[in-house]
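dumping the sequnces here before i forget
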Amino acid sequence: MAEGAGTTRAQIVDAANRLFYVKGFEHTSFAAIAETVGISRGNFYHHFKSKDEILGAVIEARLQSTRAMLAEWDRDEPGPAERVRRFVEIVIANGADIQDFGCPVGTLTNELAKLGHPARPQAVAVFDLFRTWLRAQFEELGLAVEADDLAMHVLAFSQGAATLSNAFHDGEFVRREVDRLHAWLDERLAHGRPIAGSAH
Amino acid sequence: MAEGAGTTRAQIVDAANRLFYVKGFEHTSFAAIAETVGISRGNFYHHFKSKDEILGAVIEARLQSTRAMLAEWDRDEPGPAERVRRFVEIVIANGADIQDFGCPVGTLTNELAKLGHPARPQAVAVFDLFRTWLRAQFEELGLAVEADDLAMHVLAFSQGAATLSNAFHDGEFVRREVDRLHAWLDERLAHGRPIAGSAH
DNA sequence: GAAGCGCTAGGACGCCTGTCCTAGTTGCAG
DNA sequence: CTGCAACTAGGACAGGCGTCCTAGCGCTTC
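..and the predicted 3d for all of it:
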């Protein structure tokens, strides 16, 4: 069973991944996925036993692509401070999608929570990936004691910005909020104690 | 047609309000609402022509109760600074529900966005209520120029805290994040320029 | 008592959902 | 060339959904 990117299975996962984000998990029907991929509806069950299994594969794909992205940032960015800033800028890089559909991680996690879906912890694992990675950056910056707290704060920033960007369809707000967090990082990274005069 | 709190119509709106929050709008069926209220399923259409009409009534009820809450805060709190802090503390006061289901405003707005539902702007109006109210507080504090920006930041804080509280089921994180925002307010309200030494 | 109205129960409807089945096609292995 | 496994198409299925209809209840007002 080849797992290449062009296989039918991979196409299903790709289409479902996007549709779960755009329309939500529950509102995405098999018919919609089938239409996107261009295959028959009944054909799914040769690749997945159930819709939940597709969800599992989608989350697994998101985990994998997130790991790849973080590894790329580890490789490309010169230091931990730049890496955190790279994360902060993600809400601008993906600004268009976020305005329309919110954060893929946050919205899926919340939907699964409301559905009482067993795959919820798996979805939270994507958050954990970011959390752990951010924490590692702050630790590398010598802020070991509060590293996890800072990581969660940066994560909370991204969720707040995404939710309001989606609600108000306001790109300028996101820019201001990103700048504010950059200024906060300036203070935090100066010494571990804030300094006066920064206009955050 | 009496509109009192005990009427069947009001009971339907109450039950739908809670269920839309707990299970999401789409995942909430007429059967579930009927069972909660204790009435027949087919009986709905004497009070509402469609599910969307129930949604409209639920959002209207939320707008009304939000206005009442803000008016109460205007009455009870001595000044605008205390009012903003009262808002900030809401993520702790409603901590249990937020951990389980997220923010009612943010999650509904996002769900309606993904569904492409026409009532989305109506749901955003609840956000606007908070935004306008917060802006008024900051204006009263003499921060007229940046009042809306500050209002949006406080709003973003609440959404970030709510989303992660729901994802990680972590109450201590919310407390830390609230304290951080209080410290930020301390700086902001000192003069409009931050002062040194505050451990935010 | 009669009439009328607000309200309700319960079921019928057409549609769409996730699931499952089966017959048929393709392509590789011997 | 044959056989087997992987894969696909298309439809059947049971159940749930929002919607709608109708018969009947209980209360008020002449």
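Residues 29-31, 41-42, 44-45, 49-51 of chain B lie near DNA strand D (CB under 10 Å from a C1').
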